[in-house]
UniProtKB/TrEMBL annotation:
The keyword DNA damage does not apply. NodD regulates the expression of the nodABCFE genes which encode other nodulation proteins. NodD is also a negative regulator of its own expression. Binds flavonoids as inducers. GO terms for molecular function: DNA binding; DNA-binding transcription factor activity. Keywords: Activator, DNA-binding, Nodulation, Repressor, Transcription, Transcription regulation. The keyword DNA-binding applies. Residues 10-67 form the HTH lysR-type domain. Transmembrane segments: none annotated. Belongs to the LysR transcriptional regulatory family. This is HTH lysR-type domain-containing protein. InterPro entries: LysR-type_TF, LysR_HTH_N, LysR_subst-bd, WH-like_DNA-bd_sf, WH_DNA-bd_sf, YidZ_PBP2.
């Protein structure tokens, strides 16, 4: 007969392990994240199963998944754990003496617009803090859940209870082309835009940019002649060609000096934010870094989209004609 465990004998360390296993979907990954061995994780899970009279996890392809009872326990006990983690954090945080490593998952946009200033500030104020920057792509949220990243920065809309989110900045799309392009000297109408030869940035995954979704909603499609995985490729592809590409406005000036930016008929505003989990929510170092990035992002200059709905309707009618 399995040994009975008193639920009131369960400590915060066991709850922390349960939450981490639930987030990562793996005993071995939880053990690695905690710097312990898998047998310790298994022993803790046995105690928790006996205390809560539930198997807690079931096997599924690629890992394990929490039972409904386990999800309920993690949600409720997790709130207690977060409150306790907040209590044990030092009241004062000194960046100059702080050490550790923070892993940030993001993409080319964030590495070009947000991180340069953030890294410079970290080097100046917290020189012993190590930043590990990784590509997020379509796996950004999964990186957070598996504990492979501490912070996710990008246009990700994560709506789960165990995640925290903070808005960083707004942006919209513009068109870039070589300065000698026939369309460079005038404002683009919808019919000009859809008929032009486009180099479309696919971002190397299933992501579909807002301006493409805007075109879909109106039954329009671009004359796509080139598909590339990253905005960084445009510096080598657009100069001296008849190609047009649609990119975020903040990054357009950084691509190449020989390119010009023009208002896009489908600016489709979007937001960039940062997302993290309860695992790092109360960490003084992580909180300091998030506040620093939020402050720096708020100082970046921005000019909102100029295209109007009336311009779009007028041009869209011509494009369908």
């Amino acid at each position: 007969m399995a040994k009975e465990w008193d639920p009131f004998a369960i400590d915060f360390a066991a709850i922390r392990i349960l939450r981490l296993v639930s987030e990562l979907g793996s005993f071995s990954k939880a053990a690695e994240a905690l710097g312990t061995n898998q047998s310790t994780i298994s022993y803790t899970m046995d105690r928790l199963r006996a205390a809560f009279h539930d198997k807690l996890f079931v096997r599924q392809r690629g890992g394990i998944a929490p039972t409904p009872r386990c999800a309920e326990i993690v949600a409720c006990a997790g709130r207690l754990l977060e409150a306790f983690e907040g209590l044990v954090q030092p009241v004062d945080f000194d960046p100059a003496s702080a050490s550790g490593r923070v892993t940030i998952a993001c993409n080319y946009y964030e590495r070009s617009i947000i991180l340069p200033r953030a890294i410079a500030e970290v080097r100046r104020r917290a020189p012993r803090l190590v930043l590990d920057i990784r590509t997020a792509g379509a796996e950004g949220v999964a990186h957070l859940k598996r504990g492979e990243a501490d912070l996710l920065v990008g246009p990700y809309d994560v709506r789960e209870e165990s995640f925290y989110h903070r808005h960083l900045l707004d942006d919209h799309y513009v068109c870039v082309m070589h300065k000698s392009h026939l369309l460079a000297g005038r404002r683009l109408r919808v019919d000009d835009y859809v008929k032009a030869s486009h180099a479309v940035v696919t971002y190397g995954g299933t992501w579909r940019s807002g301006y493409l979704r805007g075109l879909d909603e109106r039954g329009l499609s671009l004359n796509q002649v080139v598909a590339i995985p990253s905005i960084s490729d445009l510096a080598h592809i657009l100069p001296g060609t008849d190609l047009v590409s649609t990119v975020p406005s903040r990054i357009a000036p950084n691509i190449a000096k020989s390119l010009v930016a023009r208002a896009c008929p489908f600016p489709e505003p979007f937001q960039i934010g940062m997302t993290w989990t309860s695992r790092t929510h109360h960490s003084a170092a992580h909180r300091w870094l998030r506040q620093l990035m939020g402050r720096l992002a708020g100082t970046l200059p921005y000019k909102a989209a100029l295209a109007t709905a009336q311009d779009r309707r007028r041009g869209s009618a011509k494009a369908r004609a």
